[in-house]
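Any chance you'd type out a single protein's sequence alongside its tokenized fold?
>
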Amino acid sequence: MEARKVEAANGWEWIKQGYALFKKSPVLWIVLVMIGTAGLIAIASIPVVGDPLATLLFPVILGGLMLGCQALERGEELELMHLFAFFRHNSQPLVTLGGINLVSQLLILGIMGLTGGAALVSIMMSGQPENDPAVLMEAVTGAGLALLIGAVLFCVLLLAMQFAPMLVLFNKMHPIPALKASLRACLRNVGALSIYGIAIILFGLVASMPMMLGWLILLPVMLTSMYAGYRDLFPMQEEAAPAVEGEVIPRDDQAHF
């Protein structure tokens, strides 16, 4: 499934549309995201198996929240049970997606270790913060090439995961094709993603003052805006029209919530 190519300014539209979805049920959105975040943090704190298990379950929780976005878009109610929707029936494709993400992260760390970043990877894999700044600085300094390679590979993985859960959930794609489609969509719409990313970073700085309270709103809006971006780039079958290769879809011609 190929994504549409849209204008760079659409990245800002995703945030506006995501905020519109958030405003339909703000209190429940905050509650859902707090429960989901607290649950993942609690799972990740389990010794040895916590981090891998949280990575496996993240797409499952995200899938439930995306169902909540779809419900609001259709004029339905957001419910607490949206968070647990996939724990009640088939979650296997989303767990598989989490597994691919986990294995990919381990492979990237392995490549970093082989290219001069073994000390830094050891610190990252320990699960404990390094209290000695000198040791941390030495590890970072000695991992110049490894850091560059890791940054590129993690960026590719992030782009591949950006829309993959929604493609698995709504388009019934298998995990590997979904990852490929998400990566192609992001590369085809670098402008929109850049505007979106810059805006999120700026909002993140504002949300951090005071006491990080703004993140209670920003985290749900980040999730709802991800759904808005997916809906913009991957229209439902009835909305899709034959597109000329390389065609840019102007904002006025796109589906709005």
